[in-house]
């Protein structure tokens, strides 16, 4: 899995920082998470083929998380996208898009399947690569985070068995397809050269939210956790007022969830220098990084 940060500013674009948007790549399939203003420019900048986006996940309907969507959709349409796009979003987004298209007499020439989130922890999306569940968060309006689980084949081929039988890549492919092959007058079955695949990989996206214990159990042992840290702990009053979290609180979530790595973002424009946010979080949870735009994290 690979995560590219397209934007990690809160509320408004500021200096070189853009509002929330991330690109998750799983087995060369790409998924967009939030689509703040400027996302289209960021996608162009990173050379992403927009029409290859499989699904778009929108956490909530504050503008810094979806104001870039109508521009992206109409551009996809102009680029002759024809296959269906899935948009996972809170109720209301379809009405907004429909109204924007109606007033501007715009036709989006590909089908969009809207899947509406609700404030419960449930499976919201499943394809051949990922299984995604919602994480109800605590914000001023209904907001859901997402946890993405990579899907693996049920069986994993054992290296020692390949060597023991001297299997070529072609023979392995044949075995996976047909379950058995005959080699040197011997029947070799897939079960005897493979073992149960217990591989796990997950990524959780938690923004915007007030820090709370209620969602931590959904994040248990996540490989990469993106958690908003709009403020420093010295501005906790503001974080409580605006229903956001501090860097220290994000680190506490990572610690309690036993996450492997923490990424912090959704930075308030009041902080020109982001290092104090990193220092605050790292003091509690050492494996922390800033979600700086343009960075890609492989995990
Ligand atoms: Zn926001």
Describe this structure in words.
With 299 residues, this protein is of the alpha/beta class. It has two domains: 2-152 and 201-298, Ribonuclease Z/Hydroxyacylglutathione hydrolase-like (Metallo-beta-lactamase, Chain A), CATH 3.60.15; 155-195, no CATH class. It has nine helices and 18 strands. The strands form four sheets. It has a seven-stranded mixed sheet with strand order 6-5-4-3-2-1-18. A seven-stranded mixed sheet has the order 7-8-9-14-15-16-17, covered by helices on one side. Strand 7 and strand 8 (130-136) form a beta hairpin. Helix 8 (247-256) runs parallel beside helix 9 (275-282). Bound molecules: zinc ion. Residues 10, 20, 62, 64-65, 208, 266 line the site of zinc ion.
Q: What topology does this entry show?
A:
Layout: E1 2-7, E2 21-26, E3 29-33, H1 39-45, E4 53-57, H2 69-78, E5 85-89, H3 93-103, E6 112-116, E7 123-126, E8 130-136, E9 144-150, E10 155-157, H4 159-165, H5 169-178, E11 180-183, E12 186-189, H6 190-193, E13 194-196, E14 202-206, E15 224-228, H7 236-242, H8 247-256, E16 261-265, H9 275-282, E17 288-290, E18 296-298
Parallel strand pairs: 3-4, 4-5, 5-6, 14-15, 15-16, 16-17
Antiparallel strand pairs: 1-2, 1-18, 2-3, 7-8, 8-9, 9-14, 10-13, 11-12
Residues 10, 20, 62, 64-65, 208, 266 line the site of zinc ion (ZN).
